[in-house]
Amino acid sequence: MYKQRTLVLLILLCSSVFKLSLIAQDRSLLTLAVSSGDFERNNSPVSLALDGIALPESPSGYQLLEISPTGKTPVPFQLEDGPNKRLCWILSGNTPSGTKRVFELRTGSAPITAAKPIVALRDKGAIVFQRNGRNLLRYQYAEASVPEGKSELFRRGGFIHPLWSPKGEVLTRIQPPDHIHHYGIWNPWTSTVFEGRKLDFWNLYKGEGTVKVPTLPVVTQGPVLGTLSSRHEHVDLTAPSSTGSKAALEEEWNIKVWNAGSEDGPQLVDFQSTLHCATDSIFTIKAYTYQGFGFRATEKWDDKTARLLTSEGKGKGDGNATRARWIDARGVSSFGKSGILFMTHPLNHNFPEQLRLWATGQNQGKENVFLNFNPAQEQDWVLKPGKAYTLNYRMLVYDGELSPELLDKYWQDYANPPKAEVILSQLGGNKKVLVYTKNGKGYVHDNIASSIVCIRKLGEANGFSVDTSSNPALITAENLNKYQAIILSNTNNETFDTDAQKLAFQRYIQAGGGLVTIHSASGSERQWPWFWRTLGGKFKRHPPLQKFDIQVIDPLHPATLHLPATWTWEDECYYLEHLYPGKHVLLAANMNTVTDDKKVEYPGNTFGKLFPLCWSEEQGLGRSWYTALGHKKEYYSDPTFMTHLLGGILWVLDGSEKLDYSKATKTLIQE
């Protein structure tokens, strides 16, 4: 799940936070990265699909934490259930372009100081979404009664009204005297053909078609968003049947009201319409001037009190029948000015759709703000049975005025949302590692016992079990098959006694077994080139123990997430030779800060001022990770170094799958 990353916001995991993770009852499940991409973000919704990810049951619930320079901060989030489970939260505040932010999903609960949640209330055949007692949006599923003296054909449900501005201005209107069939924000089709009959679901007075809501909507509410799912039937009133009506088109509305930003700041509403043929017959939406996602504005808005602006710089005078990515409708309100930015999505049919606008002077110049996005203004749209057709729109509702540049930024944020991805999963469960510590003749580090204690603690706190051994007789296929990874902790010189043991180790790695190598493991098997290549290099020498600066090359690997961009650390600065170029470097020593009288001889200027110290590789079916750090036994109780080790181990385990020995050679590879 981890791939090479570039620029990232500075991540620093303080020692107190790490100690807490070692002793807490909850455990880490997923580490997530959110990339801003090419665009600056400001309170942007984030949605991560959890397809194929089964979260364990947690009586204490879950918590989402952001890893930041001050530690770990609880973040409001929601888990959307259903067939398409998603994790949702707000990328709060400002996030510059080209940066990434890192989050962790854990079991357990954490106190959160957050804005008031979005709540959904049922109200006389409608659902009203509120925040902190303020109305935001009302969806009416019950049929609205018609004005006195008007035909009952105008009766219908399935529309949004009112839509309020953040401060409380009503921006929509239904059943105006000039067009009784206008219903706030709604999505009917004007010119259609079904089973040879022409049907109009927009102009209800014709009695050809209407829209009904046959079942109660399903709603959710929470700290991040409120959602609504409602089924609409486009009913053919002219069908030759015993009932005189027949469903011609099925439609599902999905509305999301996001809790983004301050209470008085812009409010985000996502609207999705999914269309299906209701029968085995084709449903054709014929080309027509107006149909689809429509908006009728408050009666306060007219030629003098409101203005329309499209992404292409068009307005009421010249915007009709033009294409646009967005259109901003703004007018007078009790709070000065209020508006709605309507955005269409690049995946919509016939994007960017053409607009139907009432031009300047239309409707006698009064109460004349109307618009709709029409995906079938110039050409027919044929809907076939068994297929789903989805249209997506976003509304940004605001008070005040927004510049065209800012309006376009909001559209870019919608069309190109922040990308969330899992960079580390600890959901595998029942993972097991073998810590192998065999040393041949020569120097043996006094840190081995401490490293074993350290790795055992990490395993207990993070859900993997640990076996240890220095007996090479255990390096057999039968025994290695028990483990998802082998950890060579400070091995040195001849680590294996026989070629049979080498072959068992080689085949295990080729079959997908994980490999973690620590510090002097790079001095193991100095006569076996295949081992050097697998580890990434062969130990050559090191200058005296000292403090020096380490540059974080990849700040988004789990082994480096907690480190500052430049990490000053005391250790032996290992120099390796026969370095394999396929490794992905994570850390490098700043050679300008290393005191070494012989560094002119090696490494010299081969790598400039940096020399690799830690790297990873996706090799074949498995993963490998090496750190040259870890000389002193005291380091194995140091929170910063322990977190470094933990990230490497977990990353290797996250890539472990069932061993496949069909990919392994049957003979020992020397070179």
From TrEMBL:
> Which InterPro entries does this entry report, sorted A to Z?
Class_I_gatase-like, DUF6807, ThuA-like
Q: Where is the ThuA-like domain?
A: 432-652
Query: What would be one Pfam family of this protein?
Result: DUF6807
Record's protein name: ThuA-like domain-containing protein
SUPFAM superfamilies attached to this UniProt entry: Class I glutamine amidotransferase-like (SSF52317)
Instruction: Report which superkingdom the organism of origin falls in.
Output: Bacteria
- Annotated coiled-coil positions are none
